Amino acid sequence: MTVASQVKQCLSTLKGIESQLNTFSIKAQDEESRQAFHESCLITRKVIVDIENRVGELEREEPQYKGF
Prior knowledge:
This protein is mainly α. The chain has helices spanning 3-27, 31-61. It has one domain. It is 82% helix and 0% strand. Helix 1 (3-27) runs antiparallel to helix 2 (31-61). The chain is elongated and about 50 Å long. The mean pLDDT is 91.
């Protein structure tokens, strides 16, 4: 498995985690839990953006890795 494919797999996993955190924040019973899940979701979103930028860098450096 290439580094590019590992990074893309990581990105996909992070998007799944973000989705689950969002679901938990919606379904949480108390406000404290809802807020904690929401904040975790926002942090995860920032990491996703960073990883997406890295994927773009990898694709520019190595054109054979283009495409999702």
